[in-house]
Design a protein that fits this description.
Helix content is about 35%, strand content about 15%. The chain is an alpha/beta fold. Strand 8 and strand 9 form a beta hairpin. It binds zinc ion (2 copies). The site of one zinc ion has 5 residues, from loops.
């Protein structure tokens, strides 16, 4: 079994291609499943430049994925996912949105610390104005709270805070361990997200030191490229699958209607 559960489309205004382009790429690569996980619409104009509106979700995304799921049945499983932001104060809105829509899985991601979009290159200068140790501490606390919220199935890019290559000076193992324990307690899984290899940090999310702890806690893994262009689907999955073999017992989590199964991972045919 080989899947890519983290993909975006032009609907989020910072990616290329429509959902079908991603599906076709996954078919080409011989994948069993492709999950569309567009950025969730948010209330009150929150970060509206980087996501579809609720209207676009209803009129375009939801019917499109339903249609494509039927169209490609028997060739590839198309899963309807969403990448939801964990942002304190919006939990109840997000909870309602998730409950009203029949997702196969929900990725929970921390992209904001307070109002700072810390993974947006436009605001990168703020790393210089802050204590990087504190930034990491805030980040892992937010991940912990996102798990405790009980809203999500998969933790997205679980050490995204390293994206631009800023590193803590302190050993934050205990803090990371607390966050991972919360993820374990919530019964969630963690994605191996290869997009970090395409970012200044040049590293998969999560790092191997985190993966060792994840392994120790027996937290399940799944796979995502975080593709923002169809050509990114399944990118570097030979490396991701090798990590599943080392740190995940060779099994990946797959989802249908938010029910998780664990299946043996297969090496991508193209690798
Ligand atoms: Zn995005
Ligand atoms: Zn993300």
């Amino acid at each position: 079994m080989i899947v890519d559960y983290h993909t975006h489309t032009l609907l989020c205004k910072h990616a290329e291609g429509n959902a079908e382009d991603y599906i076709l790429r996954a078919l080409d690569l011989g994948f069993n499943e492709i999950g569309c996980s567009e950025h969730i619409p948010m209330p009150g104009g929150f970060d509206e430049k980087h996501r579809m509106s609720l209207g676009e979700y209803m009129s375009t995304y939801a019917p499109q994925i339903s249609h494509l799921r039927e169209q490609y049945k028997g060739r590839i499983n198309v899963r309807r996912g969403i990448e939801a932001d964990f942002f304190p104060g919006t939990e109840e809105w997000v909870r309602g949105f998730i409950a009203e829509n029949d997702f196969d899985y929900v990725i929970g991601s921390v992209h904001f610390l307070g109002t700072w979009g810390f993974d947006d290159v436009v605001f990168i200068h703020q790393y210089d104005e802050r204590d990087v140790d504190e930034v990491y501490e805030q980040y892992f606390r937010a991940v912990s709270r996102s798990a405790a919220s009980g809203l999500f199935d998969i933790i997205g890019h679980c050490d995204l805070v390293k994206k631009f290559g800023h590193r803590p000076t302190k050993n934050l193992r205990d803090l990371a361990w607390e966050a991972l324990k919360e993820i374990r307690k919530a019964g969630m899984c963690i994605e191996i997200n290869t997009s970090g290899l395409r970012k200044p940090v040049r590293e998969i999310y999560p790092s191997e030191s985190l993966l060792e702890m994840i392994h120790e806690l027996r937290i399940p893994l799944t796979l995502g490229s975080d593709a923002h262009a169809p050509g990114d689907v399944g990118k570097d999955f030979d490396r991701a699958v090798a990590l599943v073999e080392r740190f995940g017992g060779g099994k990946i989590a797959v989802f249908e209607r938010r029910q998780r199964s664990m299946l043996p991972v297969s090496r991508p045919a193209f690798a």
